[in-house]
């Protein structure tokens, strides 16, 4: 029984097809005709009460089934009309209702109903469905791009994007199916008219030629049943056609048709009252229906006034509620500043320092405020995710707030409460980065790009395309500020890694390698030691994503009694693949090397004291290295690679600390940090000057 119930619709469709072949008794026909009318009314009501067309997505298939059902009943009633001149009480009563004893008037009214169905409703629904299908399909690429943009900006997650794509696909399929289904409605209307003509002409011929009846009696009898049959057929078809037009016009609705109509009419009381005044004015004109116009105008004028008064009362109530809420909030507000800080515990709240914060001038607030379309927060979320994937460290939340002490176009980035970067942007302009050899000059306000110090110009939006033609790299203001923020975070990320963040990283590692963490931390590696090593790595741009390898290497090295600097160098060697990927491009690494004599000089400058090993290099040697390095770094200007100096592992850490004082964007790597699959190309070499070499030989002699 359950299996039969699950396939009830399929069985019903098969039975409907059999209606075309099997004769049906008039009692069953009456019952099925009433079901047909009731089903069409129910479908019309559903389409008027849905807010989204996809809520009734089965409509195209249901339209086909109901049309087939109606045609099956038409064939059955035609068989009864041609055989017996009678097709049941439903058709007979509907025929008497519309004719009213006058065949001519009945025929005229029936033809009017048919023409309304065929010319107005069916044709209009067909055109609306065709346009809706075309515009829905044309809008699909734009909707897909919007979903991809929201997904990439972090506004939605993967599941929400998947659901929205699925809805777009369902809309396209639905409106495409509706475009084809309206052709069925049009064909149904045409076929109903053809069947009506067959019933009338065939019935009259059968009644006169085969039954030998009187022409007037035959004409009266077959006219009534023909009109009744046509009306019983056209009435459901008219409601289904109306439902078709209704469902394809629900694309911009926010609720059911009843709510939308009532709500949008109630929102325009002035228009209602104006209409009432116009009707009253027409009632005063001679030879017009004074009573009807006066009653209609009075009702509209009174109704509009009543609606306007109700809206005013609602607004007053809302305003009073808002005032009451504000007063209540003011009563519950914090005490005065003096009273607040009388409690010594509240003074301690002033001592907290944010890990990272960003202050803005007044004109930059809309770029941050999400309620005004600001996208900075969503862009920061995307950068945090990308930085975590690249470097293995999640930097803390950034506190964003305005500052009256700043200029309207300025912003400041602070780390641990101290300013580390400052910039100024023009919201209504674009920043054009000047190329080495521009093809032309572009008008703009000269400035310096805040993140990389590149000479630039603030240009008007209308000059953007011309600047790009001239070879300028044009950036929008939000991207300028975000780039500056991201580079600042990369530079000072090691300062944001504290004990709390270290413990969080260890807890995250414990999920995948619980045995390693249990063995090494804190038995062999203290949290303080791990924090210092991770800081050393981040400070020189080395990702700490492979925390398992870092902990394993540290456990082995610290067991041998090495200091933190030596342990850091051993960890860097274990992360050779990571470091190679970080600095190598296309299997090649272009570097500046140190001459053997220079390395010997640097090694000889290493000095040990109670605090550990440090580099005590003479000023002459340091000046030679720094001045030669300045010339060598110019060779990297035409390369997309970060400047790299390649030295031995013994001096790498100490030499790096010295070089970063003069060139913070230069990285010092050792040979054991580069994998054997990389081709190393030395584009420069730092050597001792001839005078220094002669002096060294003289001393040796």
List the helices and strands and how they pair.
Blueprint: H1 2-6, H2 8-19, H3 26-49, H4 59-84, H5 89-99, H6 103-152, H7 158-210, H8 215-248, H9 257-266, H10 269-283, H11 290-332, H12 337-340, H13 344-347, E1 356-360, H14 365-368, H15 376-391, E2 399-402, E3 410-415, E4 418-424, E5 430-433, E6 445-448, E7 455-459, H16 464-469, E8 473-475, H17 477-496, H18 499-512, H19 514-520, H20 527-539, H21 547-558, H22 564-574, H23 576-583, E9 588-594, H24 596-604, E10 606-609, E11 612-615, H25 619-633, E12 644-647, H26 649-660, E13 667-670, E14 679-686, H27 690-700
Parallel strand pairs: 1-2, 9-12, 9-14, 12-13
Antiparallel strand pairs: 1-3, 3-4, 5-7, 5-8, 6-7, 10-11
Which stretches are poorly predicted, pLDDT < 50 over at least 5 residues?
691-701
Total number of helices = 27
* Number of E-type strands: 14
Terminal CA distance: 113 Å
Coarse structural class = alpha/beta
List the strand order in the largest sheet. Answer: 2-1-3-4
Strand content: 5-15%
Mean pLDDT: 79
Largest sheet: 4 strands, mixed
Shape: elongated
Radius of gyration: 42 Å
Helix content: 55-70%
